[in-house]
Please model this.
Amino acid sequence: MKVLIVDDDEMVRSVCNGMLTLLQHEVVAVNGGEAAIRTLQSSETEFDLILLDALMPGMSGPQTMQQLNYLGIKVPIILCSGREMTVEEFNGSDELRPRTVLGKPFTIQRLQSAIAAALAPNAGFIGPLTIG
Model:
């Protein structure tokens, strides 16, 4: 599976890259929403999943999701945040919602569970992931 990591923190990108590589995923990491849009538009291969930071300078995670929707790019998104986020923050259409929210910091097991939840058939927004 090919995963795009979008986070402004180089250390977070590196740790996520390591975790996803251990889980045997192919990984591309970029430092923000604008870079994610460029990568998704120019990539010759399609991504199966986006691991997206919620709070970034420039284009935030929700703004990035909005732009992806506008461009017709439909890739499941796991939104990562250092603060608790609620369903009410994503009250738009399903296209403007992440598949799940994953709190930072997270373990490889929680990441694996979030991936499974995000890629489940007919997965909609499932709320904050609380699997220990």
User: Anything to note?
Assistant: The longest strand covers residues 2-6. The radius of gyration is 13 Å.
